[in-house]
Design brief:
Layout: E1 19-23, H1 40-44, H2 46-54, E2 58-62, H3 79-89, E3 93-96, H4 101-110, E4 116-119, H5 126-129, H6 133-140, E5 145-148, E6 170-172, H7 174-188, E7 194-198, H8 207-216, E8 219-222, H9 224-233, H10 248-256, E9 263-264, E10 269-272, E11 281-284, E12 294-298, H11 300-312, E13 315-319, H12 332-343, E14 347-350, H13 353-362, E15 370-371, H14 375-382, H15 388-391
Parallel strand pairs: 1-2, 1-5, 2-4, 3-4, 5-6, 7-8, 7-13, 8-9, 13-14, 14-15
Antiparallel strand pairs: 10-11, 10-12
The structure holds adenosine-5'-diphosphate (ADP) and magnesium ion.
């Protein structure tokens, strides 16, 4: 196996009596009253934290929250997250309000057995995002071992995601391990047929993902806003649909060349008079939209055909809504694809911020085999990029 996918994990280290720095993703959403609105991200790292504590380690959690841009800002403090983490982790979570090295060291020394320490937002320090080696070295001096369990930030080379692992032995936590295994298997050793479904607004964002996945899959289904650019490249008049003119040439060459036998495009679309939840709609074939209308979802015939393909697949990866799912009248296509994945016999994977939001909204999360916690990170991974936060960990 490619060493990049085969990293040491916390099972490969001796943690007893060690101070373990664990990079987590506690970048949780807040409600209007400033309360933590969803603790899913905290729940996801519980197995890692519990395992390390059971091994007799001192656990020091490091996370970012929002984009404070290297400055202390109360609005982005992790203090409320420490409180929210206590019931989830089922133990006291102590909070270190300062990133001052001396103070953090004292707090770590004082940490009682079974206690967990969460440091203040690591992005309050300018050295985090610039991956300042001096800051990374400082961070490393706080512990004996580094564990990365924050797949969602693994595509960033920051001090706490990459730099620190230059100075400490780094291994993956259970969440990171599961992400790398699920996505890595799909890329290197997928059960076949392997089908990818790609949607979303813009093709320009995802050309590298489409290019890389095409080499791996047996079928590539393209819907959502980006399908319009491919349909236009085939010569269809797409009226006022979202089309990226500067991608037309690439799309045309892609369709005629490498994608010829693998790419599947919508055969019908939900056409709307306006971009509105109250708009009139009709089902139209590509090229058959009423003048001045736009395609905002895949049509029922397309959904039915894709349902068949997905049901028969042994591996299915989906990223990108197939329509403007935020509006009820354009959500059907996306819902039907989620449903098809839920019913598929194959191993099903979903990645992408909006895609995950769509599955959560559908209530079918339980029936999907792997829902990636990394929006941008999962796309970069499947696009064939090396994620610095993974690369920095020890090879097995
Ligand atoms: P993800 O976050 O899962 O990677 P993207 O950010 O690429 O997904 O795309 C999601 C967005 O694409 C949604 O906001 C959705 O409204 C939009 N979208 C999907 N289909 C269309 C379409 N036909 N026209 C315009 N926008 C679309
Ligand atoms: Mg998105």
């Amino acid at each position: 196996m490619n060493a990049y996918y085969d990293k040491k994990t916390i099972r490969d280290i001796e943690a007893r009596g060690k101070k373990v720095l664990v990079r987590v993703d506690f970048n949780v959403p807040f409600d209007e009253e400033g309360k933590v609105a969803d603790v899913t991200r905290i729940k996801m790292v519980r197995p890692t934290v519990e395992y390390l504590l059971n091994q007799g380690a001192k656990v020091i959690l490091i996370s970012h929250l929002g984009r404070p841009k290297g400055k202390v800002s109360e609005k982005f403090s992790l203090l409320p997250v420490a409180a929210a983490a206590e019931p989830v982790l089922g133990r006291p979570v102590f909070f270190c309000p300062s990133l001052d090295l001396k103070e953090v060291k004292e707090r770590i020394e004082e940490l009682p057995e079974g206690g967990v320490l969460l440091l203040e937002n690591i992005r309050f320090h300018a050295g985090e995002e610039s991956n300042d080696p001096a800051f990374a070295r400082e961070l490393a001096s706080l512990g004996d071992i580094y564990v990365n369990d924050a797949f969602a930030t693994a595509h960033r080379a920051h001090a706490s995601t990459e730099g620190v692992a230059r100075f400490l032995p780094g291994v993956s936590g259970f969440l990171m391990e599961k992400e790398v295994k699920s996505l890595g298997d799909a890329l290197t050793n997928p059960a076949r047929p392997f089908v990818a479904v790609i949607g979303g607004a813009k093709v320009s964002d995802k050309i590298y993902v489409i290019d890389n996945l095409l080499q791996k899959v047996d079928k590539l289904l393209i819907g959502g806003g980006m399908a319009n650019t491919f349909l236009a490249a085939l010569g269809h008049n797409m009226e006022d649909s979202l089309i990226e003119r500067d991608c037309l040439e690439w799309a045309g060459e892609f369709l005629r060349g490498p994608a010829k036998d693998k790419l599947v495009l919508p055969v019908d679309l939900v056409a709307a008079e306006s971009f509105s939840p109250l708009s009139y709609t009709v089902i139209a074939a590509p090229g058959g939209l009423p003048a001045g209308w736009r395609a905002l979802d895949i049509g029922p015939q397309t959904a039915a055909a894709w349902d068949e393909i997905i049901k028969e697949a042994a591996t299915v990866f989906w990223n990108g809504p197939l329509g403007v799912f935020e509006m009820e009248n354009f959500a059907q296509g996306t819902l039907r694809i989620v449903q098809a994945m839920a019913n598929s016999r194959g191993f099903t994977l979903i990645g992408g911020g909006d895609s995950v939001a769509a599955v959560t909204k559908s209530g079918m999360e339980e029936q999907i085999d792997h829902i990636s916690t990394g929006g941008g990170a999962s796309l970069e991974f499947l696009g064939g990029k090396i994620l610095p936060g993974i690369a920095a960990l020890l090879d097995r």
